UniProtKB/TrEMBL annotation, chain A:
Protein's UniProt name: Mitotic spindle checkpoint protein MAD1
Any one GO BP annotation for this protein: cell division
Family note: Belongs to the MAD1 family.
UniProt keyword annotation of Cell division present: yes
Coiled coil: 100-279, 311-382, 420-468, 530-653
Keywords annotated in UniProt: Cell cycle, Cell division, Coiled coil, Mitosis, Nucleus
From TrEMBL, chain B:
UniProt-recorded name of the protein: Mitotic spindle checkpoint protein MAD2
Protein's organism: Linum tenue
Keyword set, alphabetical order: Cell cycle, Cell division, Mitosis, Nucleus
Keyword Transport: no
GO process terms (BP): cell division; mitotic spindle assembly checkpoint signaling
Keyword DNA-binding among record annotations: no
Domain HORMA: 14-198
């Protein structure tokens, strides 16, 4: 309001022309020149001397001023001509009258103006009083503003200090974080390089392993193909064998038929032989009778010639019969030999047929063998291509070595993962620090924004105050000038005071402005720093994201490694795999093989018996089958023998070891231990141990213990129920629950007894 | 041996080795029964870990497992045992069908300095009980073994371990290609921590092959 009133006063002051100068009656005042010529003066040469020209304002104008016309002729009366003097006197009187009227009008006007000016003065005085009041208010406001300025200065300084502290802290943190991030980056780079190297080696090893696996797959496929081929060949051989078996059976049947026929022939021959033998016996009998008769007749000698002839005839018949018998025998042997030859011929024919049948197969087998040899050579070449492998047996070793390398590389990867985990922990910490700095930066931003707003407000205030000051100055100057014209000295001192106070404030205002500019600079610097921090934070956030992705990848790899570890993979550098000699499986296998072999033995025995029967009847017809079966039987018998030897060896080794162990236990602990397996009535198996001290006086001094599922309990008997022993049992076993202490005490006591005795 | 005269919570190296080897004996018996490697009638019922456990009556298997346990406890006391694997294979083809993996983590400080640890026996028994229950319930997800099977035991030890007379070094770890794996519970005596895992042949491959 004071401003408005001041402005209104100003407007009033400015709207008016500058205060008219006080009117001096009848005095020439050089103001705005307006020539009013009453009578046109003759055109004469004006004198060089400056003549005062007095002009009067036109009638009705505000800017009236009294102008007295002075005839230029009056200035130089000596110059006028006497002829015009009378006219001139009339004119001057009229003019003077007119001038008087005008003068009077002007006076009235001037009086009116004076009144107006006086009123205006009063108004101005009022206004001046108001301006004084306003000045006072402004002074108060100025003081208030000064106080506010001082408070704002103080706040600014405090904020400035805080900002400086925060900026320093954030600088330090940023430096630390930058150092940490630089270190982490260096570590990351190192570990990335290590990981890349490990990945490259692992990839190379994997490629090698894949190649080897592919080769192994090819080899296994080819092996399977060969197996199939061999199986097919075996099937074919089986078919051939079956075919040969059928042939053999057919031959056997033929042989049987022949055997039957030969048996019939043999029976016939036997009958013939019997007949012949009977005949021969009859002949012999007749011969003996005849000889008897001859001997009897020899005494008579009546007809020696007839008996001799008879004898001769009989002898001849005998000889004939004998020759016939010999011929029959020869025939029989020849017949047998013929049959044998026939059989041999048949066998050879059958062999020839088989050979002829198998000849094309031989060619096929030869082709197959050539193919197999080619494939073997190809495999050998492949094995030669594989580095570090010289033969087929080296392939699995090489694969195991490569697997171990892969496992080592995976271990290294695991170590890298551990480092990365540590890195993740550090990154998490940096993230937290980053978040903290971000929040602090946001807070600092907010504070800076607030400070800027306050600074702006202060600037606005200052600009307003300076404008008011300027306006006041102008108003004061105008007022001064007016007062100087009006002769008001009372307010000059106040104005001077105002001016002096304003002058005093100016340096403060300048200082404030300087401080504001400095703070503006500081704020701009801080904003720049905050922007740079934000950029760094964004870059770190990107790095953190990339690290998180890598950590996810590594976690998946870790999961795969853990699955492999759980699978059973191991490193040969740190671990070796031991396997207990599993006699159970061997025993089981041996038992089963023995059972199978025994069943086969029985079958072959039955077959052999049948064949032997056929053989006994037909001779050598079953030689082929015998040879095949005998070979199998021999093989099976050999296997049984080896397995039985192995079992016996295991048993002897175990027995030896057990006996050594028992002797050692006896000598070390002083007790002979006998172990029995018993069964309780409830079916639970229990192991009973009977201990006899080597220092025992009697055989009755025995301790019995029962062992069941990890628990050992003493069994009462005659020896333990004695007073001495029962005391010791109570103390050592029942109270202190220590059987070794009991047995040790017992041995010491029995040793002492022995030594003393 | 866990001292019974003093507080029950003290566990020594020897006691822990005994607990682990005993656990393996009972676990092996349970697996052989549940997977029908041996017929049911060859097993006898006993009480252990608060559960009815089955132990084989076959003398050969019994002696095999007892010798095995003795050797395992020796290696455990020396801190040389890393893993024990029970492998179930087909008798006819020799193909590995299942692998029961018991990995062991040993506190080397106890082995080197001979200090003891403290843990409640009840808690250890509870943990072992949980594993035994899981072994018994594994038949619900493991594929059926339709053919006759045999078992074998592998021990993963440190390289400086002397190979005993009844053991031999094997280069074949009897692994399964592309197995399915199921992780079971673990138990910890504060000296030895045993993690159990069973890996078996993926039955889907067989069904895919058949299709």
């Amino acid at each position: 309001m004071s401003g408005c009133s001041f402005l209104d006063l100003r407007a009033l002051v400015l709207s008016r022309q500058p205060l008219p100068t006080p009117v001096k009656p009848l005095l020439s005042v050089k103001t705005e020149p307006r020539m009013i010529l009453r009578t046109p003066a003759p055109k004469r040469a004006r004198p060089i001397e400056p003549a005062p020209i007095i002009e009067s304002p036109p009638v009705g104008s505000d800017h009236r001023q009294l102008a007295i016309y002075e005839d230029p002729s009056s200035a130089g009366p000596a110059r006028r001509e006497p002829s015009q003097q009378s006219e001139h006197m009339l004119c001057t009187y009229q003019c003077r009258q007119m001038v008087k009227a005008d003068f009077l009008d002007a006076l009235s006007n001037a009086e009116k103006q004076v009144q107006d000016y006086q009123s205006k003065l009063a108004e101005l005085n009022d206004n001046f009083g108001k301006a004084d009041e306003e000045r006072k208010t402004f002074r108060e406001k100025l003081s208030y503003v000064e106080q506010e300025l001082a408070a704002a200065k103080g706040r600014e300084q405090a904020l400035h200090d805080q900002l400086l502290k925060e900026v320093n802290d954030s600088h330090e943190r940023l430096k630390k974080e930058l150092e940490l991030s630089a270190k982490l980056q260096a570590k990351l780079e190192n570990e990335q390089n290590l990981r890349k190297k490990a990945e490259s080696t692992a990839a190379a090893a994997e490629d090698k392993a894949k190649e080897l696996e592919a080769k192994l797959g090819h080899i296994s496929k080819s092996i399977e193909k060969e197996k199939k081929r061999f199986n097919n060949e075996l099937a074919q051989l089986n078919r051939d064998s079956k075919f040969s078996i059928t042939k053999i059976t057919v031959d056997l049947e033929k042989m049987e038929f022949r055997a039957k026929s030969s048996e019939q022939e043999v029976e016939l021959l036997r009958k013939q032989q019997e007949d012949l033998q009977s005949k021969f016996s009859e002949c012999l009998h007749q011969k003996s009778e005849l000889e008897k008769r001859l001997t009897s007749l020899s005494f008579e000698d009546d007809s020696p010639k007839e008996s001799d002839i008879l004898v001769k005839h009989l002898q001849e018949e005998l000889r004939n019969y004998e020759s016939e018998v010999r011929e029959a025998r020869k025939l029989k042997s020849a017949h047998d030999s013929i049959e044998l030859m026939k059989e041999k011929l048949l066998e050879e024919k059958s062999r020839r047929e088989r050979v002829e049948l198998q000849l094309p197969k031989l060619q096929e087998y030869e082709l197959k063998i050539n193919k197999l040899e080619d494939e073997l050579s190809a495999w050998k070449l492949m094995i030669q291509d594989i580095p570090g492998v010289s033969c087929c047996d080296d392939v699995p070793l090489r694969i195991s070595a490569l697997q171990k390398e892969v496992i080592d590389n995976l271990k290294k990867l695991g170590e890298v993962n551990a480092h990365l985990k540590q890195m993740q922990v550090v990154l998490d910490k940096t993230q937290l620090d980053k978040q903290k700095t971000e929040t602090e930066a946001a807070l600092a931003k907010e504070k800076a924004d607030r400070l800027e707003a306050e600074v702006k407000r202060m600037n606005l205030m200052l600009s307003a105050v300076s404008e008011e000051r300027n306006m006041l100055k102008i108003a004061i100057e105008d007022f001064k000038s007016k007062n100087e014209q009006a002769g008001g000295h009372a307010s000059s001192s106040a104005l001077q005071e105002l001016e002096s106070s304003l002058l005093k404030r100016e340096p403060y205002i300048k200082e404030l402005e300087g401080d504001l500019f400095a703070q503006k600079d500081i704020n701009t610097r801080q904003q720049d720093e905050i922007k740079s921090l934000h950029d760094r934070l964004n870059s770190e956030a990107r790095k953190v994201k990339s690290l998180e992705r890598e950590s996810d990848r590594l976690r998946s790899e870790i999961f795969l490694l853990e699955s492999k570890l759980g699978h059973g993979d191991f490193s040969a550098a740190n671990t070796k795999v031991l396997r207990m000699v599993n006699t159970l499986a061997v025993g089981n296998d041996a038992k089963q093989t023995i059972e199978a072999l025994q069943s086969e033995l029985q079958r072959t025995k039955e077959k052999l018996q049948a064949l032997e029967e056929y053989k006994s009847q037909s001779g050598n017809s079953g030689k082929l089958v015998d040879s095949y079966m005998s070979g199998k039987v021999a093989q099976l018998k050999e296997q049984i023998a080896t397995l039985e030897k192995r079992e016996e060896r295991y048993k002897t080794v175990f027995a030896d070891r057990i006996s050594v162990f028992r002797r050692a236990c006896c000598e070390l602990f002083g007790y002979k231990i006998v172990m029995d397996e018993r069964q309780r009535p409830n079916g639970i198996p229990v192991t009973r141990f009977t201990l006899q001290s080597i220092y025992a006086m009697n055989d009755d001094e025995k301790l019995e213990f029962e062992y069941e599922s990890g628990n050992t309990n003493i069994v009462e008997n005659g020896y333990t129920s004695t007073s001495e022993i029962s005391q010791q049992v109570d103390i050592f076993v029942r109270k202190m629950n220590s059987i070794p202490a009991f047995t040790a005490n017992l041995t010491v006591e029995s040793f002492n007894r022995r030594t003393l005795s | 041996m866990a001292s019974k005269t003093a507080a029950k919570d003290i566990i020594t190296l020897r006691g822990s080795a005994a607990i682990v080897s005993e656990f393996f004996g009972y676990a092996a018996n349970s697996i052989l029964y549940n997977r029908a490697v041996y017929p049911e009638e060859s097993f006898a019922r006993v009480k252990k870990y608060g559960l009815p456990m089955l132990l084989t009556k076959d003398e050969g298997v019994k002696s095999f497992i007892s010798n095995l346990n003795a050797q395992l406890s020796e290696w455990l006391e020396a801190g040389k045992l890393q893993r024990v694997v029970l492998v179930i294979m087909s008798m006819n083809t020799g193909e590995v069908l299942e692998r029961w993996n018991f990995s062991i983590e040993t506190d080397n400080e106890v082995v080197e300095k001979g200090v003891s640890r403290e843990k409640s026996d009840k808690e250890i028994m509870r943990e072992i009980q949980a594993i035994m229950r899981q072994i018994a319930s594994s038949i619900t997800y493991l594929p059926c073994l339709d053919e006759q099977c045999v078992f074998d035991v592998l021990a993963y030890t440190d390289t400086d371990v002397a190979v005993p007379f009844t053991w031999m070094e094997s280069s074949d770890a009897k692994l399964i290609a592309n197995p399915q794996m199921v992780k079971l519970h673990s138990f910890d005596t504060k000296i030895h921590k045993v993690n159990t895992l069973v890996s078996y042949k993926n039955d889907e491959e067989e069904s895919d092959d058949e299709e």
